[in-house]
Amino acid sequence: MVEDAGDFAGEPDAFERLWTPHRMVYIGGQDKPADASESQCPFCRAPGRDDAEGLIVHRGTTAYVVLNLYPYSPGHVLVCPYRHVSDYTELTAEETVEVAELSQFSMQVIRSVSAPPGFNLGLNQGEVAGAGIKAHLHQHVVPRWGGDANFLPIVAQTKAVPQLLGDTQQLLAAAFADAVRTR
């Protein structure tokens, strides 16, 4: 619902308001762990759930691929080591290789499903660097399309994601399984 800015107290401005109360869960930190322990870590708990419930789209030997609960765009996945480790320098050689390979594999699968013309890849180390869950390392693989970063993130601090996470999980899990079979 868009409301006229002139109807609000204070100085009127040129901005219209797009209300997104569902984002308060994220902003308020409802899903953030209470502490940095493995028992509180969503990336340690996810592999113990079934794939659909845990939003896991692929499991490797030392790492797995999971949908981001608060995606920047459809298909935004995280590559996480199973081991509860917070810093890139703490990964074993085997984990480092698998995180890199699963990041590449994720890009290939996402390209086969939705053909994004670009990607952002990133590891956020520490809260000041943007890590939402700083206790467990995770690599972001974010598909990008022209115009996907429109006015909403800038003006309304909102991202429009046109696909339900459950639908995305089913689509990507099937594509990962098909890609594994044809490797």
Structure notes:
Helices cover 31% and strands 16% of the residues. Helix 4 (93-114) crosses helix 6 (165-181). With 183 residues, the protein is an alpha+beta fold. Strand 3 (56-59) and strand 4 form a beta hairpin.
How much of the polypeptide forms β-strand, as a percent range? 15-25%
Q: How much is the average pLDDT?
A: 83
Q: Which residues sit in consecutive blocks of at least 5 with pLDDT less than 50? A: none
Taken in chain order, the helices and strands follow as: EEHHHEEEHEEHH
Shape: globular
Tell me about the largest β-sheet: 5 strands, antiparallel
Structural class: alpha+beta
> Number of helix segments?
6
Radius of gyration, in angstroms, nearest whole number: 18 Å
How many beta-strand runs?
A: 7
Distance between the termini: 47 Å
Strand order of the biggest β-sheet: 3-4-5-7-6
* Share of residues in helices: 25-40%
Secondary-structure map with pairings?
Layout: E1 2-3, E2 17-18, H1 24-27, H2 42-45, H3 51-54, E3 56-59, E4 63-67, E5 77-81, H4 93-114, E6 118-123, E7 139-144, H5 151-156, H6 165-181
Antiparallel strand pairs: 1-2, 3-4, 4-5, 5-7, 6-7
Helix pairs in contact: 4-6
Question: What is shown here, in short?
Answer:
This protein has 183 residues and is α+β, with helices and mostly antiparallel strands. It contains six helices and seven strands, in the order ββαααβββαββαα. Strands 3-4-5-7-6 form a five-stranded antiparallel sheet. Strands 1-2 form a two-stranded antiparallel ribbon.
